[in-house]
Amino acid sequence: MSRPFLSIRAVRKTFGAFVAVHDVTIDVPKGEFLTFLGPSGSGKSTTLYAIAGFQDPSSGDVLLEDKSLLSVPSHKRNIGMVFQRYTLFPHLSVAENVAFPLRVRRRPDTEVKRKVGDMLGLVRLEKFADRYPGALSGGQQQRVALARALAYDPPILLMDEPLSALDKKLRQEIQAEIRRIHRETGVTILYVTHDQEEALHLSDRIALFKEGRIEQIGTGEDLYLRPVSEFVAGFIGNSNFLSAEHLQTTAGAATVRLADGSIVTGVKATTPFGQGQKVRLMVRPEAFRLTPGPASAALAVEIVDTSFFGDRRRVVARTAGGDEIDVRPTSDAQATDSATTSGQRIFFDPASAFLFPA
Amino acid sequence: MLLDYDRLGWLRVALAGFTALVAAFLLLPVVFIVLLSFGSSRWLAFPPPGWTLKWYQQLLADPAWIDAALTSAKIAAMAAILAVAIGLFASFSLVRGEFRGRQVLRGLLLTPMVLPVVVFAIAIYAFFLRIGLAGTTIGFVIAHTILALPFAIIPITAALEGFDKSIEDAAIVCGASPLQARLRITLPSIRIGIFSAAIFAFLASWDEVVVAIFMASPTLQTLPVKIWGSLRADLSPVVAAASSLLVGLTLCLMIATALLRRKLSR
Fold first, then answer.
1. Are residues B93 and B21 in the same domain?
2. What is the nearest CA distance from A237 to chain B, expressed in angstroms?
3. Backbone CA torsion sign across A296, A302, A304, A306
4. Closest CA to B112 of B101, B123, B103
5. Are residues B186 and B223 in the same domain?
6. Do B169 and A54 touch (CB under 8 A)?
7. Is A148 in Cβ contact with B167 (below 8 Å)?
8. How many angstroms separate the CA of residue A91 from the nearest CA in chain B?
9. Total-model pTM
10. Among B203, B201, B194, which residue's Cα sits nearest to residue B223?
11. Min distance B172 CA to chain A CA atoms (Å)
12. Which domain holds residue B111?
């Protein structure tokens, strides 16, 4: 295996008795788009700040191409960063903002001018070169910040929730811009967000943080289709959790008894469970069917509400145990008309369900 | 809102009248002084029997007055520069610093504004007598710098508190050293605060009279001290002319500040 481009090794950060980051280790290949995802306070931003040099880790190391970054002060790390807040220099024009990192590096004027033009072209804001930050929208400001962070061709670009101050529509637009820019420049990006949709949309890989540790790291598909814990399953995508009791597992297929006494067989069990152990059965909303299919388990429910969105139908059901279940049947089941949804049973393939310890 | 202007009814008239009265009380003396400075009466009679510019001619022809004005300007300028420089460092530590007693330090730095000036004047005069600074320009500047410091610290801390430190961090990630980031990014961003600080500090020294009376010597007099002395010696309309110039310059500075603030805060 080739040596990693960026290597975060056992980084730990404590504030007094509080451990913000527990020995986080990640290797990042060159050109990857890696997202640190997690709820607030999970240590994702602290890890990013350690790479930027704003917070020295209590222990551990950060290596870029085998050289430790920790002894290098922030301004000499040559790292690009886009912040959560708007950080354009208010007294400088857009062009001078983008030129700033080149000017402090004492690059010749001709090069500065050319590079500023290139960068503003990259973020499609050439026409705004002479404007001041106060005259730009939030989305434009973050695009200029992106141009400024890339102007000096940094090997790594750090992005700390850069879109969290923008509204949803704008966020999606700029996400597309970020994807395009990543594709065009090939820069290695470490991106912090608490928005799982954003993480799924943008990333090559996602590191899901929980309480200062990486709960799971992998592609979006890994985290969505093969979550290692109830936390991952609950954080990525929508999930329904049903209380159940584990009866037995044979050849990786578990049999459980649900709260209403019904038996479900053939559930994927990745970890061993004891007999009689309390477990949680997780089923994605889109894994439910309104009509029985081959190898499907049935769940007796009461339909509380159904709504039709054109491309999908959403049903809210309640189990005998009182759990609310979110049901979003995919297109094959969508052909069913509303009459079907008045039924008293919903169905799912046990092989698409997950089992976690309660 | 508790006091809604639109719903006050007849009280609005009373309020307007009261406001006009207060404004008149504050402004009329100044207006009278300015009018009298153009009056032809030797005895400051009002209404003036005629109009003249001779008091201004006398004023500008008298080297003692010119000297006092220049001394005032020089001391005020030096006090303003020092107060802004010290105020900048003080504000950075007050806003950014994390140390015990920060609030106490802030209070201490602002005391010259609330301390009775005469108490401060006597104290610093006694001290300067002992170390030989009384009656010197340096002593004058030091005393006025202390008095001007709160007027510099208040606008600079306010500007610095309103400045997002992430912007400075961004400059550092961009490759600027922490010092470069502060000089090239932070200071220009809070320039309105620094500018206000300079003007207020200048004015605090420019029209200060109590400490100045203690600090002054026969050869070192500021404009307010000269006005005070002339008032006691002979009540000549030249004093009114000098006062009018003092008011005029202050007014010009305030207007310039207001205009510049509007221009800078785009």
1. no
2. 32
3. positive
4. B123
5. yes
6. yes
7. no
8. 6
9. 0.82
10. B203
11. 5
12. 63-264
